[in-house]
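Dear support,

We are seeing what looks like truncated structure output for some complexes. This example has two components. We would appreciate it if you could run it in full and send us the complete token output so we can diff it against ours.
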Amino acid sequence: MADYATERASFTWALARRQLDGLPDGRGINIAHEAVDRHAAGARRDHVALRCLERHGGRRDVTYGELAERSNRFANLLDALGVVPGDRVFVLLPRTAELFAAVLGTLKHRSVLCPLFPAFGPEPIRQRLELGSGRVLVTTPALYRRKIATLRERLPELAHVLLVTGAEPPGRELPERTLDLEALLGSAGGAFEIGPTDPEDMALLHFTSGTTGTPKGAVHVHEAVVSHYATGRTALDLHPDDVFWCTADPGWVTGTSYGIISPLVHGVTSVVDEGDFDADRWYGVLEDEKVTVWYTAPTALRMLVQAGADMAKAHDLHRLRFVASVGEPLNPEVVVWGNDTLGLPIHDNWWQTETGGIMIANYPCMDIRPGSMGRPLPGIDATVLVRDEHDRVVLGPDGAAVEAAIGHEGELALRPGWPSMFRGYLDDEERYRACFVGGWYLSGDLARRDDDGYFWFVGRGDDVIKSAGHLIGPFEVESTLMEHPAVVEAGVIGKPDAVSGQVVKAFVTLGTGYEPSEDLRLELIGFARRRLGAAVAPRELAFDQQLPHTESGKIMRRLLKARELGLPEGDTSTLVGRR
Amino acid sequence: MTDDEARALIRTTLHQVAPDADLDAVEPGETLQEALDLDSIDFLNLVTGLCESTGFEIPERDYPQLSTLEGAVDYLTGLGSAG
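Here is the complete output from our reference environment:
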């Protein structure tokens, strides 16, 4: 994109759609065809699609041709198992080539892909498999034994568990009622023709957390690939010879839209690192793999800043051309570090699970305002809407939502109609409809806009916690803590944190017969971690026998937060001391 | 620091960061993160905790040496001995 205003004026989604091939003979559009098959059938057949870096060293290249064949095998296997289009296939895997073959094979088969984050504990996994009616689960023997084996009886709809056995010691028996994926793939055919795929067919299911209730399954369709392609060009500046590294795990929407789909649709080489964060390793990956475009998150960047400039200076990072970040605003220290250490500005952008792709961004062709999420992408109309004292968007006499004046805070909203917009929350039409008011999609995020149309993130408009860029629903954490016999009630907030943005902090009220102690504090944290996993469980926990409630009996999380931060407690007119 | 002291220190520090983690279940050679389901923040908190209790600063470039139990024990027992 050479010029923002020009591109914005000329851009249409219909034009963007024409950059893609569509299935042969007008049979619709399928994400996996655009991501793999069209390259495998053309000049990029032998181009490296994935450069997979193993956790303990070693790397494996997979070309577009090979990826097409492997994903074909997976699609054929689903057929052989009697799985039909529309069935849900869940993937809980480390970042390896097998993950990509399963994801793309599922999309080719026209089953629905639901990625899970391997750092989830058993409870979030069970909940999502159950809510999403998971028919197939692809995972490893280690993850299965640790997180799923004990839940299996509670998942009657889960018909097939396919295990990637590569890391398993030879001769070790697989758990009962599981299948050896690699053995089955070996006997599945390597050719597969994608069936007719309507652009509105469900392709991806991403669970996200709300303030209350169970996680919501955001439904995305095959047409979303038009957004994945267009945003890869406008917001990430992808070019055919790029080596791209998205550090997000595919268990989250960023890792699916930009770790898997967008770079493949562009035909570039994607770096896929199985390893965990390690500052020196990451600099090594950037240098050794000659990464040109890098998409990462503020938490990771802050950990690199902490590691010091000397470590960075030991690496040759001159091939890096464009750096983007998503999750939360970049603090000034990180902006300065980018300029000094990488010699490049870091381009912040904004989007969320429901939008399926980047919506607001800083571009290479535009001046960055540090701390701003940038300006809406070509094809995207964004605004800030006025909210009333009950946090509801205000409607004018004509029924349209009232837009906030320049510089004023309000709810960030988007005009519906872009291809990767979610098409529903699974089995929850009411919650879906509640997201649209007065002609806008309401993001739940608070923001303001400046004179030049740059948007600035202010915070969440609800109690959802954003930790290391991931949304965590306080209700899920509270319910889990309350399953412990010592806990009568729990209130959970996001406490500001220098590295991860927010950390989950719980306040619990103990039942009679239980006394606060360090042992009990650790027991409760351990209890939550075993069920929820490290990414969701509280890292801090305090005892509080006087949790504040509204008159209707709900815990006032905002007041807990204000107390934690030593802020004025604000309007407490609806507060009563004890229920 | 002796080998046993190092193990005990890792155990108590880990218990503060991840009370659910069972150090006895870690197989030789397995990374602590993998074996105990620790995320990057947990690992960072573990190393920070070790720094606090030993009084030594552990530079980031040494973190990978602490990724396995044996590596962490070796590292801690070697602290201070080089001067």
